[in-house]
Design goal:
The structure holds two protein chains of two kinds.
Chain A: E1 4-7, E2 10-13, E3 19-25, E4 31-37, E5 43-50, E6 53-57, E7 64-70, E8 73-78, E9 87-94, E10 102-103, E11 107-111
Parallel strand pairs in A: 2-11
Antiparallel strand pairs in A: 1-3, 3-8, 4-5, 4-9, 5-6, 7-8, 9-10, 9-11
Chain B: E1 2-5, E2 10-14, E3 19-21, E4 24-27, E5 31-38, E6 44-50, E7 56-58, E8 64-68, E9 73-78, E10 87-95, E11 105-106, E12 110-115
Classes of the chains: A mainly beta, B mainly beta.
Chain lengths: ~110, ~120
Amino acid sequence: DTAVSQTPKYLVTQMGNDKSIKCEQNLGHDTMYWYKQDSKKFLKIMFSYNNKELIINETVPNRFSPKSPDKAHLNLHINSLELGDSAVYFCASRQGAGTEAFFGQGTRLTVV
Amino acid sequence: AQSVTQLDSQVPVFEEAPVELRCNYSSSVSVYLFWYVQYPNQGLQLLLKYLSGSTLVESINGFEAEFNKSQTSFHLRKPSVHISDTAEYFCAVRPSLRGGADGLTFGKGTHLIIQP
């Protein structure tokens, strides 16, 4: 019954590898997001999708490529991973203007 | 563009004492305001939100926040805290007049530490 689910929850990988994080929401929302939380817990938006269309790309390196196969899914693919990519990545979704965003449990990515 | 300032990175409080977590924001457009809570190793949960209407909003677990437009503040308060309130608290804003898919702009968070 999880509203926004992400897989995997933990991801440890070596520098230079390519990895993907998956996100699915069963709330019927039109808008989905990826946020990055750094080691100091600061949260910053990376991408925003509305009805499978990219709306916001907040100066994220092009090694990060989001893909939305349908309204319920927004996956994040990362090429050539770097040490600085280590963070917790959160997926979120929202429906409508005056509503709050619902967050997934996060994916802790560690690049070694 | 919007910015959110949470002045206190860490607030230690004794159990059953009152607490206030401060949040100020800056924006050239009207915004919605939110407080989210993050318990250790978990995602963010909405605590409360201000969209319009009464400037005092309350959550089901005893927290309240008051929107002050002139001071551009949205401070979070609780009259008596419990050990289980230990968490990271994030204030966030989002433009209210534009439609579409605007995301949240977060403050840097305040770590609330409840001491027995």
